[in-house]
Specification:
The protein is mostly beta strands. About 10% of the residues lie in helices and about 45% in strands. It is built from one helix and eight strands. It has one helix at about 110-120; strands at about 10-15, 30-35, 40-45, 50-55, 60-70, 75-80, 90-95, 100-105. Strands 5-4-3-2-1-8-7-6 form an eight-stranded mixed beta sheet, with helices on one face. β7 (about 90-95) and β8 form a beta hairpin. It is globular, with a radius of gyration of 14 Å.
């Protein structure tokens, strides 16, 4: 399980092909809206939920899939990248879980992420 007591998950960079790593747990009608990868771990935003993938062990064969349904989001905050600070951040408060922070490096489209979270959580 991802350590949600440490609110920062991992620095993420857009990686459309990373979404294939979680397709095995998709339910009927679920599709990838955005995929972001750290070193080995990553996050996939679907039309149903946020899936955080934690790759474990030396070989990386052990994987932890954490599903964060949009319906459990009570609030969220987006901080866009600036001129000198090129990273963006997404804070999500989940009922029963607390705050989870996703940090995006580079030119991630954080406002697009905010739009599809809004369309499902509001």
């Amino acid at each position: 399980m991802i350590d949600f007591k440490n609110p920062s998950f991992v620095k993420l960079k857009s990686s459309p092909e990373y979404g294939r790593n979680v397709e095995a747990i998709f339910i009927e009608g679920e599709k990838t809206l955005g995929a972001y990868k750290g070193v080995r771990d990553g996050v996939v935003f679907t039309n149903k939920r946020i899936i955080a993938l934690n790759v474990q062990g030396i070989t990386g064969k052990k994987k932890d899939y954490t599903s964060l349904p949009y319906k459990n989001i009570t609030a969220f905050s987006v901080e866009t990248a600036g001129t000198f600070d090129r990273d963006a951040e997404l804070d999500v408060w989940m009922s029963g879980l607390g705050k989870v922070r996703f940090e995006f490096k580079g030119m991630s489209n954080i406002l697009e992420i905010s739009k599809f979270i809004s369309s499902f959580a509001l």
